[in-house]
Amino acid sequence: MRFADSLFAERFQISTADLNRYLAEALSQGGDYADLYFEYLLTSSIGIDESIVKSATQGVSMGVGVRVISGERTGYAYSDDLAPEKIRKAANVAAHIASGPSKIDKFDLNEGVRHNLYPVLTAPTETALADRVELVKRADRAARAYDSRVFQVQATYADNLRHVLVATSDGVLSLDRQPLARLSVHALARRKGETPQQRHSGGGGRVDLDFFLKDKPPEYFAREAAREAIAMLDAAEAPAGEMTVVLGPGWPGVLLHEAVGHGLEADFNRKGVSAFSGRIGQKVASELCTVIDDGTIHSRRGSLNVDDEGQPTQRNVLIENGILRGYLQDKLSSTLMGSASTGSGRRESYAHIPMPRMTNTFMLAGQSDPEEIVRSVPQGLYCANFGGGQVDITSGNFVFSASESYLIEDGKITRPVRNATLIGNGPEALKYVSMVGNDLKLDEGIGVCGKAGQSVPVGLGIPTVRIDRMTVGGTA
Amino acid sequence: MSENHLLELANDVVRMAMARGATGAECTIGEGDEFSAEVRMREVESLKEAGSRGAGLRILIGKRTGSSYTSDLSAEGIDRLVRSAVEIADITSEDPHAGLPDPDELGSVPGDLQLYSAAIENLDPARNIDQAKRAEAAAFDTDPRISNSDGASFDSGTSRHVFANSLGFSGEYRTGSCSLSVSPVARDGESMERDYWFTIARDPAGLQAPEEVGRIAAHRALRRLHPVKVDTQKVPVVFEPRTARSLLDCIFDAVHGMSIYRQESFLAGKLGEPVAAESVTVIDDATIPGLFGTSPFDDEGVPSRRTPVIERGILKNYLLNSYAARKLGMKTTGNASRGLAGNAGIGHGNFFLEAGVQPPSRIIAGISNGFFVTSLMGFGVNIVTGDYSRGATGLWIRDGELAFAVSEVTIAGNLRDMLLSMEAVGNDLEFSGSIAAPTLKIGEMTVGGK
């Protein structure tokens, strides 16, 4: 897409001369760098509950954020009105972080070469509502049809289409059109007179509507939610204490996101507040572990053509054969640390200051046969699926909550057990990885990562792995 | 924009929706300003200042619903807002329980609820930065082991809430608040720990002194140093007010009307039954002047009120909006809550567990071997079954005293048993948010460690 053809040029009559003027205004009090982030966001969501489509919403929001960096200081202001006088006012407010004469008055804005990772011609948000509502109806029917013990189903389909324009004082002019869609299904099952169990499933990505019509239909997610809820009806108490844990492939990659991902975000390391600070080159995992954060995977939920600072995304090696290799960098941290941006500067919206974030985080496949991994464990826990997790960056302690797990007894997966939180310490936990499967799988595309009050979509992945020691928070 | 203008706009939106064929309509308009100053290592790190607004519309066409929102309040934006809601209502289903509250349920709590102080808007940015710097400096000055910091921030904001519906309700109120927080990092040898403390008030005069905030935060970080991972065992667990609050979050989720009608709560069907120890009384009250969960009316235009949820251990009420009330054959409790988009959900006012009589020190003194929890991690709570399993950090109680730091452990149990075995309720209830609890002691939980 060229700037002249963009929504911002056409609908809002913004010219490159305007962008130059706003940037000059932002740097009018001095400062080293300024950027503008224009956003125009269309969203829709449709929800079914008790087989009734009870809610449907569509909305539009727009705005521009202006940032000025002066040394380690950031000034930020935004406006939800794209009128020139409002943008200039925001630029003036942000400018006050600096105090000195203007140093820069001309910006050579250039549209660079970039990826085309989600070449979606018609975004789901642009399709007929009547087609999209069918997705939740089909999910509802399929979950109920799966088993008569399923007695409540909720399904939500949500999509958005985000148009983004970034212009920076160092000459970047980048445009992106970011489609995103997600279907999620909750199923509640009960055996007569007993406590119900509820589980959910879902997926999506930066895809067109065909993804839900051909690749991963609503029935796929609905059956998975129902299957898990039914499986957990027989769950016994989960064990408590240290034991061997085997993680199944896919979403259990949330381990990597919490155990190492956040701790490797450059802002925490620049400030020396991460348990990984100063550990580049050190061994932080077993040599079987290579962990990647890759924003360039085709049509994935965590992928971006350019990050929210206009930098092309890339494939970043975080841990290579157990050795810590690098941090996730945004503009500010990389400048202050004397390195380059890794295309990891992200923000929730125009109202938020960008910071280093993950995209799609996963561990490379190893050599082991997944079945062999389970057979190798005399006694332990097999975790097929998880809910969310959390990490304390400074101590390095992290948790993630198993939503579908089973005991392993004499090398066999046996009884299901109830929800339990797993806890470990980031720089230590992966040292106990003793087997890595050959079955790397990326998650279905439902992840949302929160940091400092900002949510962004992310992806995860992991092959089957055996961890010799991890604390499981059950009651038995 | 003047207050009258936004209220008129909300009424206009409702009228436009009715003119386009809606049989009922609700319009919400929100407007807000935010200011934030972040300081780190005694220097300004970032300043942020901005304002924004948006409008949301929900319409009924018979028993079908549609909703829309926009940040564009121009004539063109408002026209699109109304068209979008009407368009999308077409794909929803007839829901026999869809509707607005009964007209006689609408209204507003009279009088000044003290939610807004002009002093917030007159705050001087230089003073705000200074407050953050003083809080961080106080943390550094507490102990040489506080040598790093994740920063201190001063935040303030005001907002205006406007609501109108097609039954003739229209109302608005303003709120404001400011807060000061600091996150010092303590380091001693290889051990590095971070904690935080904050103060929040409707009026700047109500904030704790920056030096006090800094000192408390520093002590909290210092006492976490050199933690031990204890053996797996079953012991009494004490939640300090900051972590006890999270148990109230669980109780709120469990009495949430939507979860009740779907039977996805361990408290569904338990009205009138004992669900907690007799020392437990839980109240939702959105009418207490000046508090953070207070409002004159809920997000359907129903007046706020005081609702006893658990009284001396007996489950008395669920928290309902008009939809959940119709589903359950009950009356709304004035707990409708929503952002700009979608149907009303359910929220709480000031949701708290009433203070008991014991000072926290006496609760701890009565325990020979137990766990005092100062922070919790993760999302391991299952409201359907009550299963509870979370990561925890805190201090070990040995012979009635806080003996040493503990981390990288889990605490687990089932909320049913946890509520029934609440053996002590502290006298230290304070509101620093819309959910509050005093120190609480649970008879026994499983600590997962080595």
Your description of this structure?
The complex is a heterodimer of chains A (476) and B (450). With 476 residues, chain A is an alpha+beta fold. Chain A contains eleven helices and 22 strands. Chain A has helices spanning 7-10, 16-26, 84-95, 129-146, 210-215, 218-231, 254-261, 266-270, 331-337, 370-375, 426-429; strands at 33-49, 52-70, 73-79, 150-168, 173-189, 197-205, 240-247, 291-294, 315-320, 323-324, 345-346, 355-356, 360-363, 379-391, 397-409, 412-417, 420-425, 433-436, 441-442, 447-451, 454-462, 465-473. In chain A, the strands form four sheets. In chain A, strands 8, 9, 10, 13, 19, 20 and 21 form a seven-stranded mixed sheet that branches. In chain A, strands 3-2-1-4-5-6 form a six-stranded antiparallel sheet. In chain A, a hairpin with a 2-residue loop joins β20 (447-451) and β21. The relative contact order of chain A is 0.14. Chain B is an alpha+beta fold and 450 residues long. Chain B folds into two domains: 3-221, PmbA/TldD fold, CATH 3.30.2290.10; 227-450, no CATH class. Chain B is 23% helix and 37% strand. Chain B has helices at 3-19, 75-89, 118-121, 125-142, 210-222, 241-254, 257-261, 322-328, 360-365, 415-420, and strands at 24-40, 43-61, 64-70, 146-165, 170-188, 191-194, 197-201, 233-239, 282-285, 306-311, 314-315, 336-337, 345-346, 350-353, 369-377, 387-398, 401-414, 422-425, 435-436, 440-448. In chain B, the strands form four sheets. In chain B, strands 1, 2, 3, 4, 5, 6 and 7 form a seven-stranded antiparallel sheet that branches. Chain B has a five-stranded mixed barrel with strand order 8-15-16-17-20. In chain B, β1 (24-40) and β2 (43-61) form a beta hairpin. In chain B, α4 (125-142) runs parallel beside α5. The radius of gyration of chain B is 24 Å and the shape is globular. The mean pLDDT of chain B is 97. The chains are: A alpha+beta (476), B alpha+beta (450). β2 of chain A pairs parallel with β3 (64-70) of chain B, so a sheet runs across the interface.
